[in-house]
Amino acid sequence: MGQEDWIVHLTEVRKRLIIVLAWFVVVLCAGLYVSSDILLYLKSQPMIGEIKWNVFSFTDGLMIYMKCAFLFALLFTVPVLLYQLWAFVRPGLTEAESRSALPYIPVAFALFIIGVAFSYWVVFPMMVRFMMRMNQTIGAVETYGIDRYFGFLFQIVFPMAIAFELPVILLFLTKIGLLTPERLKMSRKYAYIALTITGSCISPPDMVSHLSVTVPLLLLFEISALASNWQWRAMRQSSPSNG
To answer: Pfam family example for this protein (predicted)?
Structure first.
């Protein structure tokens, strides 16, 4: 690749990054506008009862407000970032590869949202109830700081949301030929162990809660494996050697 080609590629990268950054700034401004409503909505949810948010320094409220706006902007910048990555590599793809890669963007975003919703509405309330029962068991006075509350929330929600990207990851690895049904079968037991450990880390240490988190993760893996096998068979049938 000559110097002129490098200049062209770097110019293209800069243009894509400027687009992503501009979109991030716009969504961040929107996040600053709606953060107070988002935080009040989260506080008003009756799923774990009324929990008073306390601040222990003057900056706690401001930091949570800014973190909420930043995460709001980051969430809605991910699809734009993925699209810009696809647009950057599209000239090097065939028409068929370009069309087949584009649907991964909305699917990945939708799975991320589903993971956030599942972890927030199912996993997080279980964790909070368990921790509150433990605190009451030892006679502790419950006073929760807003920074620790949201730190605990993000610690639970985002690992689960990332775990929900498993179908897209497996399908993409299958699409580029790195994952085959044989390799997937050989790695199944290791995937089960990893998902079980993940479920135990983000769920309360009681059996019911642990199963309610781990079982959906295992089912998600099996659904992803079925989709991967189906895609592999479709690729084999459509390959020129089988034509």
So the answer is: TatC
